[in-house]
Design a protein that fits this description.
The complex is a heterodimer. By secondary structure, chain A is α+β, with helices and mostly antiparallel strands. Among the domains of chain A are: about 45 residues, no CATH class; about 80 residues, 2-Layer Sandwich (Gyrase A, domain 2); about 50 residues, DNA polymerase, domain 1, CATH 1.10.150. Helix content of chain A is about 45%, strand content about 15%. Chain A has a 4-stranded antiparallel sheet with strand order 8-9-1-10. In chain A, a hairpin with a 4-residue loop joins β3 and β4. Chain A is flat and about 105 Å long. The two termini of chain A are about 25 Å apart. Chain B is α+β, with helices and mostly antiparallel strands. Chain B has one domain: RPB5-like RNA polymerase subunit (Eukaryotic RPB6 RNA polymerase subunit, Alpha-Beta Complex). Chain B is built from 2 helices and 4 strands, in the order βαβαββ. Classes of the chains: A alpha+beta, B alpha+beta. At the A-B interface, α2, α11, α12 and α13 of A face β2, α2, β3 and β4 of B.
């Protein structure tokens, strides 16, 4: 122990505590020896308050998150959604996060702009430009001429450049139709022997053709966050957004965890995961210690991919057969395990409870080994 | 245009760990096998950006509200 220097001691502590030690020692003008003494005392206290080996922290986390979550359902109705964009909140959102759905019910992005574009006018203009526009957006009215098999779309608020774009896109996609440009309207002539039912179908299809903007972005809203003009979007397409000049690619993010994982990596996804869970709980006025949520996020990202907390994720991939069978779908797991000749080595908690054995938790984790042949 | 992943504020700093340091980490956390490390995929954008290969240990310095900084290790897997 005596060879250890002050630095070695400090390495054992988290940075926030090290900084506090530095602060105190400079304030009290401690010398090197006294500082070492102080550090030793702090380490003693630190490890006293840390979890002991074998503590079932998973269960503590589960309770700490679930108990407040039971309060959520009751309170959900009392809170209105935040301004502009309506996103899923409360318990449904929390379930969605823990289930690690591929696509959240309301994907949303928060876009920050570069300093140059950080004015209200430019933000508004940008928000307008990224919104996905379909043919429907420009159409004022649509009429079908049944005798001549024609669809006529009257246009409104369209620029010349956009009109040519629309016509170009339509001609490309509609090979069996004749697309003609009229003043402030588009006429689409179908094959003469097309049935009326089909014509009606095509009308709907044509109206939902994508013209400009960024795909998937259904709505945008601008809000001011301190100095910054921030754009909130309904619908998410991080990849396309990051290609744009105006976007601050060091801050913008999406609430779709899988999307973040594929573009910014697993660690960024973990950060978003924690942020989303805390925000959802905070929004309901619930305060859960960050460390419980961090633990869940660490387990969910353990394999480098996002795993759900449940049957198909964390619980479904446990190594113990009995633990899996005891969770859900008992027969399926038992049959599969017997076909594959799996072995259960009874290292988990579930499996040991089942066979009435001491569980490897707390003091049960340790066993005594005697050294034979020694005095 | 390629996205500069490493400059994003959600992405903590990633470092590739040297072979010597790897042994020290294994000793400190009593890890006997490589597969007991938390994993990170080789196709992960950050792994690609820093040029790590499967088998490398990556040191991740995360920001934390509780402890300011937390060091975490992941092993690169296929």
């Amino acid at each position: 122990m005596s060879e250890k220097s002050l630095k070695d001691y400090l390495d054992e502590l988290p940075k926030s505590i090290v900084e506090q030690i530095d602060q105190v020692s400079s304030k009290m003008k401690l010398n090197e020896k006294q500082k070492e003494q102080l550090t030793k005392e702090v380490i003693k206290e630190y490890f006293k308050s840390a979890f002991q080996p074998g503590e079932a922290i998973g269960i503590i986390s589960a309770q700490s998150i679930s108990e407040p979550a039971t309060q959520m359902t009751m309170r959900t109705y009392h809170f209105a959604a935040s301004a502009g964009i309506q996103v899923t909140l409360g318990l449904p959102r929390l379930i969605e996060i823990f289930d690690a759905r591929k696509e959240p019910t309301t994907p949303a992005m928060t876009i920050y702009l570069k300093q140059k574009y950080n004015t209200k006018e430019k933000a508004e203009e940008f928000a307008k430009s990224i919104k996905e526009k379909k043919v429907k957006y420009f159409a004022k009215s649509v009429s079908i001429d049944l005798t001549n098999k024609k669809i006529k779309i009257e246009l409104d608020k369209i620029k010349k450049s956009e009109l040519t774009e629309v016509i170009e896109k339509l001609t490309k996609q509609l090979k069996d139709f004749k697309v003609k440009e009229l003043t402030n309207a588009i006429s689409i002539e179908a094959n003469q022997n097309m049935s009326i039912k089909d014509l009606e179908k095509w009308k709907r299809k044509i109206l939902s053709f994508y013209v400009s903007g960024i795909q998937n972005i259904k709505n945008t809203a601008i809000i001011k966050e301190g100095e910054n003009w921030v754009i909130k979007t309904l619908g998410s397409n991080l990849e396309k957004i990051f290609q744009l000049e105006e976007v601050d690619t060091t801050k913008s993010y999406s609430n779709n965890i899988h999307e973040v994982a594929s573009i910014l990596g697993i660690e960024a996804a973990r950060t978003i995961l924690i942020k989303e869970i805390i925000d959802t709980l905070k929004q309901q006025g619930l305060n859960v210690d960050e460390r419980h949520i961090t633990l869940v996020a660490d387990i969910m990202t353990l394999t480098g991919e996002i795993r759900a907390v449940g049957r198909y994720g964390v619980a479904g991939t446990q190594s113990s057969v009995l633990a899996r069978a005891g969770f859900e779908e008992t027969i399926k797991h038992l049959v599969k395990a017997s076909v594959r000749n799996e072995v259960d080595d009874f290292e988990g908690i579930f499996d040991n409870v089942m066979i009435n054995q001491q569980v490897p938790v707390g003091t049960g984790m340790f066993e005594l080994i005697s050294k034979i042949g020694e005095e | 245009m390629k996205i500069d992943v490493l400059s994003h504020e959600l992405v903590p700093k990633h470092y590739i760990v040297s072979e010597e340091e790897k042994q020290k980490i294994k000793e400190k956390y009593k890890i006997d096998k490589d597969n007991k490390f938390p994993q990170i995929k080789a196709k992960d954008p950050v792994v690609k950006a820093i040029g790590a290969k499967p088998g490398d240990i990556i040191k991740i310095v995360r920001k934390s509200n509780v402890a300011k900084e937390i060091v975490y290790y992941r092993i690169v897997v296929e």
